[in-house]
Specification:
24% of the residues lie in helices and 35% in strands. The protein is of the alpha/beta class.
Amino acid sequence: MAARIEHLVTSGQFSLDGGTWDVDNNVWIVGDDHEVVVIDAAHDADAILAAIGDRTLTAIICTHAHNDHIDAAPELADRTGATIWLHPDDLPLWKQTHPDRDPDAHLADGQVIEAAGADLKVLHTPGHAPGAVCLYDAGLGTVFTGDTLFHGGPGATGRSYSHFPTIIDSIRDRLLTLPPETRVLTGHGDSTTVGAEATHLEEWIARGH
């Protein structure tokens, strides 16, 4: 059975550098009728569990460790036995939200996480956060970009642990080199494609943020 992608939107708050904002997050569930992984366990473990149903959750993959992407991860893991995966460069951010609980495993560039016929290849794409990753599945023609690339441009780089030139390098070298028809499924908001965003790279650089 081929893997499929399911989409859930959860709502909560993002806090960093003394500010707090209301946000809606995209939660992506990848798998089949028996086994799934969750990309970014945001805000609401109950809603994510309801979407999973009676399927086995094997992994919770964190695209980065801003609180709005990881706040439900420990509860979801505790209730399912799933492994929480995070790139180690984002441990300082993780500790701001979960000081008493570590991720279970560390993501590495080039690693492949399998889920019911899906093969999610880890692309380390720092810039929005030091340990930000994207997850590319050639078979699904899809890249999950977290907050690295959105419909309309790069993720924000105006707060702690972020860096605009670094995110531009990540997008140019790791994402815009993917086939142009590749679907870009983001951490917030609408989806796009690699080709649609590639035409705007020079505009983003000129804008400088």
